[in-house]
Amino acid sequence: MAQTNTKTVRRKRKVRLLTRNGQYYDYNLLACVVLLTCFGLIMLYSTSAYDAQVEYGSDTYFLFRQALFSVGGLAAIFVFSMIDYHFYARYAGYFYLFSNLLLLVTKFIGHEVNGAKRWIKIGPIQFQSAEPAKLAIILFLSVLIVQFGKKLKGFKAPAVLFAFGALTFLLTWKFTENLSTAIIILGITCALIFVAHPKTAPFVLTAGIGLPVGIVGVRGYVSSLGASGNFRFNRVLAWIDPEKYSDGGGYQVLQGLYAIGSGGLFGKGLGNSTQKIQSIPEAQNDMIFSIICEELGLFGAVLLTILFVFLLYRLMFIAQNAPDLLGSLIVTGIFAHIALQVILNIAVVLNVIPTTGVTLPFISYGGTSILFLMTEMGIALNVSRQIRIKDN
């Protein structure tokens, strides 16, 4: 009896730590985000210090900028976690239209960086126009699914949802030439429809037949092309045989694989990477995972992967316990976004898929990316705040 009372008291103490006036707050998610951000800043400095010193005369150039955006992102988490997520539902349609308009105008007024027009520059402010589109599609489709209700059982409602996602996919691809982000947007769309749709069989059948056929078909078609002027086809050719194209598209892939292989079990030590020194172009961006493997080894890569898995687990927990369908769908969309981006980035570094330019969330360099990721985390935390815990 005494042991039972002790357990009850401990449980009540734990509940009091996690709740305020019966409200839950996911401190585990917040702590995981902070850990990932701090780890990202450490690895960013280690990866970019040499290039920053050579190009900008300061080894902390990239670190300072990313730290500034990270602080702004933490402020965004606080602000958005305090705003009721139902507020966003009222303006989700307008946000969707605005984000698509940004994609459109990027083609004409976009600021070109490294040969691509993906940024909009207004005075000292510069942002990547495709980043708001990810959040917009999550909010807008979640609201539409709630409005459709039982109509989602048919064919028309899912087709409408997919059409909205496909529209943003095409605008992102054609007007910003950012196919990687376009694929993520389409993936989020499919994930939300899959989760909301009452039937699973059509999705399993489509994936089971369509994916293998598509992969084999694309691989055979690209192989038959030989040398091509299209850089995306060249990327696929380099993926199939990176050593053959080591002087072109396969160079970055091979250097990344060399970095991973040389890291071994525990790595060369923080800051001791050799591949980051003018071997991997802009290693602080989408190839940062290869430097993590080189400096921290398999051990560091596994720890980072565990952190991402824990982050996704907390998002899944919030989605399952959300107070209503809207909150559950919004967090599910955020879950899909993070999961897709992590999987695609690591798959590219390991040469499982062709290079796509997808950054590693919270780790890779990118101000717009970190701000919108933190905004999504703030919205997820607001959903968690509205979970009610009953202490029986």
From TrEMBL:
Q: What is the membrane topology noted in the UniProt record heading this document?
A: Multi-pass membrane protein
Q: What is its EC number?
A: 2.4.99.28
Q: Which family does it belong to?
A: Belongs to the SEDS family. FtsW subfamily.
Organism per entry: Faecalicatena fissicatena
- Summary of the function given for this chain in its UniProt record: Peptidoglycan polymerase that is essential for cell division.
Protein name as annotated: Probable peptidoglycan glycosyltransferase FtsW
Does the record carry Glycosyltransferase as a key word?
yes
- Work out whether the entry's keyword set contains Cell division: yes
Question: Where is this protein localized, as stated in its record?
Answer: Membrane
Any one Gene Ontology biological process term? cell division
Q: Where are the transmembrane segments?
A: 24-47, 67-87, 94-110, 130-148, 155-173, 179-196, 203-222, 288-313, 325-350, 362-383
Question: What keywords is this UniProt entry annotated with?
Answer: Cell cycle, Cell division, Cell shape, Glycosyltransferase, Membrane, Peptidoglycan synthesis, Transferase, Transmembrane, Transmembrane helix
